[in-house]
Amino acid sequence: MALVFEKADERNAKAEFRQSIAVFGPPGVGKTSLIRTLPDTETLVLDLEAGMKSVQGWNGVSMPIRAYTDFRDFAVLLGGPDPSAPNTSYFSTGYHAHISAQYKGTGILELLASKRIIFIDSITDLTRQIFAWAKQQPESFNVKGEVDTRGTFGLVGRETIQVLKHLQHTPDKTVIFVGVLEQVKDDAKQKVWQPQMEGSKGPRELPGIVDQVITMHHFAKGSEGVWFLDPDSPHRRLVCRAGNRFGLPAKDRSTRLAETEPPDLGRLLAKMNGKPVSEEATTIVETAEVPTGANPNTPAAITHAVTTPAWA
User: Fold this and answer.
1) Are 81 and 92 a contacting pair, CB within 8 Å?
2) Long-range contact pairs involving 5-12 (C-beta distance under 8 Å, separation at least 24)
3) How many CB atoms lie within 10 A of CB 186?
4) HSE on the CB side for 37, CA within 13 Å?
5) Minimal CA–CA distance to 50: which of 63, 35, 37?
6) Is 252 helix (H, G, I), strand (E, B) or coil?
7) Which terminus has fewer CB within 10 Å in the chain: N or C?
8) 3-class SS of residue 139
9) Dihedrals phi, psi of 63, to nearest 5 degrees
């Protein structure tokens, strides 16, 4: 019998340990350094972009991944089999049994079981690996054997969504993806922020897959205590709410986060789960209102100069 019921306390207990978060930010903002805010004994980093140099001295375990097939095997080991997948699928019960037997005795299975948090750096490079794999598949060629880029991008989109959804169902794990954020012009020639990923299907559907979408960016605080975007500022903030005044991608399924939060993932996870957290050292003004006489080039000007992305 496959159908089961969950009581509220059982459901809430699972929600604390099974979360999925996507953190995007411009290059150089320090996304990988967020690893330092997580418990090193409970965190495993999947290093797809060879970017661990920026966190030298971090004492946790990392796993370099150079090919999508290796990442897919990891996703199957971590998430278990997909009961709806056909036997020919790499996400099926049969393939899960095969890959589990292959890694038995290597220590990999025990390592995965011992880690509560999986930090994937980065989802941008993951889609590049998927694209490189997809170019070699039959879907990338027409009946004449000629390259068919439409088939390639269609496969990239399907594979990206499937592996992300599989990781979303991973039991008792928090999965954190980080990726590059870029500013582009939409069809109406308006500047919008969007994740840098291969294909269009992944960025479009990602917010419906993960629990939280967060943007990490540079901020400065005005004289009235209002945070505003400032690419030249050394201060960083996590933008957590959809419809924020900065026009940055964000979504808070927990409904417990402020518009911006400090760049501390450990604190963020605790707050999302309703646990008490320490107050910030300085007062944060969580409003777009600007006091009379304030500098017109700070919050108010930025609030109206940036358009809200369509996928937020």
Assistant:
1) yes
2) none
3) 12
4) 15
5) 63
6) strand
7) N
8) helix
9) -130, 110
Question: What is the 8-class DSSP label of residue 214?
Answer: E
First and final C-alpha spacing in the chain: 39
3-state SS class at 192:
strand
**SS3 state at 63:** strand
Q: What's the rounded Cα separation, in Å, for the pair 251 and 244?
A: 10
Q: Which amino acid is at 111?
A: L
Give pLDDT tens digits for 117-138: 999 998 999 999 999 999 999 9
Other Cβ atoms within 10 Å of 233 Cβ, number? 15
* 159-to-19, 93, 164, 221 alpha-carbon distances in Å: 21, 18, 9, 42
Q: What is the DSSP letter of 278?
A: P
User: Which is nearest to 38 in space by CA: 238, 274, 208, 270?
Assistant: 270
How far apart CA 193 and CA 180 sit, in angstroms, is 10
**Phi and psi angles of residue 212, each rounded to the nearest 5 degrees, phi first:** -130, 135
pLDDT tens figures, 75-111: 999 999 998 999 999 999 999 999 999 999 999 999 9
Q: What is the pLDDT of residue 223?
A: 79
Give the separation between CA 218 and CA 233, rounded to whole angstroms: 6
Residues in the chain where the model's pLDDT stays below 70:
1-17, 279-312
Structural domain boundaries of the chain? 40-191
Give the pLDDT score at 66. 93
**Could you report the per-residue pLDDT of 264-274, keeping only the tens digit for each?**
999 999 999 98
Give residue 73's pLDDT: 95
Residue 17's pLDDT is what? 59
Handedness of CA 43, 275, 253, 18 (dihedral sign): positive
Residue at 270: amino acid letter: A
The one-character DSSP state at 46 is E
